[in-house]
Specification:
- By secondary structure, this protein is of the alpha/beta class.
- It has one domain: Rossmann fold (3-Layer(aba) Sandwich).
- Helix content is 32%, strand content 29%.
- A hairpin with a 4-residue loop joins strand 7 and strand 8.
- Helix 4 runs parallel beside helix 6.
- It is globular and about 45 Å long.
- The two termini are 13 Å apart.
Length: 221
């Protein structure tokens, strides 16, 4: 049994992201730990500022996980600081950097342990992509290895910014039996502890398996 998992298509912490209230309530906390790791080299402070203002408007505070490099993720003190966190949010624009920093690290071990103990784990944009295994390589729409919080599922974050041709190519490239969900900005797919998936936010997701449309209700993860 694990806690709540949210995969957000991007456009995070802006009007329309009503699911964040749901996640705060599920976590039973007024503190969110934000890791802007995926934008380590792209002004991560801007993500932090937006997250802080957004969650303050919801009556919560933000604690920043200063995890930007592989060395940061391997530092035991940084892992201990995340131990028992009730709500962790992975963010940023580069899933490849985020994966290279967190995979097989003490920091990610603590994040996953907290989630499996009943906490809330959310990823937006690169964070949503990398929590899956396989994950979509947004550079070309193919697939590669992710962190694997959820398996046999992949997402296309910011799907509303992809051309129909690129989405089609990714659907065609998806390994057999893998569920692929195109998630637009300001939209989330959420898995509750009983394994049920639903969507919240402003957009509408599209779900595919073996090249054919399916539904969130049919997700096997």
């Amino acid at each position: 049994m694990s806690g709540w998992l949210a995969l957000v298509g991007g456009g995070e912490w802006t009007d329309g992201c009503t699911f964040d209230r749901t996640l705060l309530d599920a976590a039973g906390t007024d503190e969110v730990v934000v890791l802007p790791t995926g934008s380590a080299y792209e002004n991560p402070h801007l993500l932090v500022e937006r997250a802080t203002a957004w969650f303050e408007s919801l009556g919560a505070s933000v604690r920043v996980g200063e995890i930007y490099t592989r060395a940061d993720a391997m530092l035991e003190a940084n892992a201990v600081a995340l131990r028992g966190a009730r709500f962790v949010y992975l963010a940023g624009a580069s899933p490849m950097h985020l994966r290279s920093v967190l995979k097989d690290s003490p920091v990610y071990d603590e994040i996953e342990a907290s989630w499996r103990a009943g906490g809330v784990l959310a990823g937006t944009n690169a964070g949503a992509d990398v929590l899956c295994d396989p994950m979509v390589d947004s550079r070309g729409g193919a697939f590669t290895v992710g962190l694997g919080a959820v398996s046999n599922l992949a997402v296309i974050p910011r799907a509303n910014t992809w051309s129909p041709e690129k989405v089609h190519r990714t659907v065609e490239l998806a390994p057999g039996g893998i569920d692929l969900v195109a998630v637009p900005e300001r939209t989330a797919i959420i898995r509750t502890p009983d394994g049920t998936w639903r969507q919240e936010g402003t957009g509408t997701v599209a779900v595919y398996r073996d090249g054919r449309p399916t539904t969130l209700a049919d997700l096997s993860s």
